[in-house]
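Try this one yourself first.
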C-alpha cells in the first residue's frame, strides 16, 4: 500500500534546503558586485607602480590604491586642514617625462612639512582633483610664475593622497567581506549536501545516538507511507516514530526514546485585542533531544499526547515541577540552576546563633 506520503520526510528535507539556497546565492552575488565595485582587495594589496607611471590610467581601471617610491619632493607651502589641525602636506615632484606630480603626505611622513625630501615610499590613494585641488594649482602657478594653463598641462587632474589610503578600514572591510563570503559559501555547500543526502541533515544527525540516521530516515519514511497511525496538519505518528513537518522545521524521533511531553498555550494579542490562542507541543527525548511544535490546535496536540502516552507508558505527561525534576535527574544536566545555587549555598557563611 502506498500513499501521498511516499518519501515524505526526505522530500520535505530536500524542499526545505532548496528554499534556503536562494538567500545565500543572492548574498554571494551582492558580495561579488560590491567586491568589483569597491576596490577592497586593492586597499589591502596595493599595486606597486613607478613614479613615472600614468596614475590616470590606474584611476580609470579602478586601481586606486598604490605603493610607489618618489624622489626629490618639494613642499608647496600648502596643507590640508581639518578644522584647526593639519592632516596633510602638499608636495610636488618632477617625473621622468618632465611632468609635475602632486602628492599629499601625512604629517608623520614629511615630519610636519620638511622643505625638501630626497626620497619617500608611500602607500597612497589616487584621487581626482576637486575644488581644493584647483585652488592649489592656481596658487602654485602664481608662486612658480607659471600660467595656470601651463601648470595644468604639466600636471594632471589626478594626485596621490597618503592620508586617504585608509589601510585599517580596508583591512577590516576585507576581513568582514571574506568572513561573510566563507560563511555563506559553507552554508550553501551544506544546503546542497542536505539536498543530495537528506540523512546528513541536522534533524537526522541528531538521532545518531539512537542508531544509523540513514536507516532511521528510511524506516520513518516507509512507515509514514504505509502505516501512518495518526496524522494532523503538521504532526504524524507511525509505529515507531513521532514526526513533525512544518514551516518551522522538520524533526522526528523514535517513540521509545521520548521521556516527557507537555503543551503550553500562547495568547496572541495586539494591544488590548485578543486574536487567538495557539498551542505548542514540547517533547523531551533521550540524549537531550528537544522538539518544539508551535502554533498547533489544542485538539491536535491532545490527540498526539494521548497516543504517545499509550504507545510508551514510560513517557511523563504534563508540565509539573515533579516531572521537570525527574527529567533533570535523568538527563544529568550539569548546568542545572538548582545545582549552581546549591554550590553557592555551601560557601555561604551562616549568621544564625
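Now uncover the answer:
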Amino acid at each position: 500500500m502506498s500513499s501521498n506520503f511516499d518519501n515524505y520526510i526526505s522530500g520535505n528535507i530536500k524542499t526545505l534546503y532548496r528554499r534556503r539556497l536562494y538567500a545565500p546565492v543572492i548574498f554571494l552575488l551582492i558580495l561579488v558586485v560590491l567586491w568589483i565595485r569597491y576596490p577592497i582587495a586593492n586597499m589591502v594589496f596595493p599595486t606597486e607602480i613607478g613614479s613615472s607611471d600614468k596614475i590616470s590610467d590606474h584611476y580609470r581601471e579602478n586601481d586606486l590604491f598604490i605603493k610607489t617610491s618618489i624622489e626629490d619632493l618639494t613642499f608647496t607651502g600648502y596643507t590640508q586642514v581639518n578644522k584647526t589641525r593639519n592632516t596633510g602636506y602638499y608636495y610636488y615632484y618632477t617625473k621622468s617625462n618632465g611632468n609635475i606630480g602632486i602628492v599629499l603626505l601625512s604629517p608623520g611622513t614629511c615630519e610636519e612639512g620638511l622643505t625638501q625630501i630626497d626620497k619617500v615610499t608611500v602607500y597612497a590613494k589616487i584621487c581626482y582633483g576637486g575644488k581644493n585641488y584647483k585652488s592649489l594649482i592656481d596658487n602654485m602657478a602664481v608662486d612658480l610664475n607659471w600660467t595656470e594653463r601651463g601648470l595644468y598641462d604639466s600636471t594632471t587632474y589626478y594626485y596621490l593622497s597618503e592620508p586617504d589610503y585608509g589601510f585599517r578600514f580596508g583591512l577590516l572591510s576585507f576581513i568582514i567581506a571574506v568572513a561573510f563570503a566563507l560563511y555563506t559559501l559553507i552554508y550553501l555547500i551544506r544546503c546542497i549536501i542536505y539536498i543530495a543526502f537528506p540523512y546528513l541533515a541536522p534533524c537526522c544527525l541528531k538521532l545518531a545516538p539512537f542508531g544509523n540516521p540513514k536507516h532511521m530516515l528510511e524506516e520513518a519514511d516507509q512507515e509514514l507511507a504505509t502505516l501512518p497511525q495518526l496524522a494532523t496538519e503538521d504532526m504524524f505518528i507511525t509505529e515507531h516514530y513521532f514526526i513533525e513537518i512544518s514551516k518551522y522545521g522538520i524533526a522526528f524521533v523514535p517513540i521509545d526514546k521520548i521521556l516527557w511531553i507537555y503543551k503550553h498555550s500562547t495568547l496572541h494579542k495586539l494591544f488590548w485585542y485578543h486574536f487567538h490562542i495557539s498551542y505548542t507541543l514540547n517533547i523531551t527525548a533521550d540524549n537531550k533531544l528537544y522538539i518544539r511544535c508551535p502554533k498547533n490546535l489544542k485538539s491536535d496536540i491532545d490527540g498526539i499526547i494521548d497516543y504517545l502516552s499509550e504507545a510508551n507508558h514510560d513517557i511523563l505527561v504534563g508540565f509539573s515541577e515533579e516531572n521537570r525534576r525527574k527529567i533533570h535527574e535523568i538527563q544529568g544536566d550539569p548546568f542545572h540552576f538548582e545545582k549552581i545555587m546549591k554550590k553557592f549555598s555551601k560557601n555561604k557563611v551562616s549568621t544564625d546563633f
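Discussion: The radius of gyration is 35 Å. Confidence is low (pLDDT under 50) at residues 344-353.
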